[in-house]
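[Meeting: bench + compute handoff]

Bench side (C.D.) handed over the final construct sequence. Compute side (W.E.) agreed to return the predicted structure before the next meeting so the bench team could plan truncations. Sequence as handed over:
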Amino acid sequence: MDKVAVHTERSNAYVALCGRVYDITNFLNQEHGKSRGSASPEDMIMYSGQEVNASFPLALRTACPDLVPARDDPNWLMYLKSDIDTEMAFPFIHHAGSLANSKEMMHQDF
């Protein structure tokens, strides 16, 4: 995490997600969050240099495939919930859906 923590500028922004490091510099300039209001580069840059797992909850069918059968959640709409302190620290919660602008972002495991 120390290597990720130094990448906190709009021209050099990284985050850690699910054990991997991502350069989000170009991602910051895309349109985000139409369903809950927009997320500007200024909104997102405050999370650079951090681990952001709380903003990307797992679908229950991914996390617990034997617990939730496909017939009960065919559209991958049931998600794990985190604790309230985590949700307050990471208010931008991402789910796969129709507003995604790439095939990768629309995949439920992204």
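W.E. noted at the follow-up: The mean pLDDT is 75. C.D. will use this when planning the next construct.
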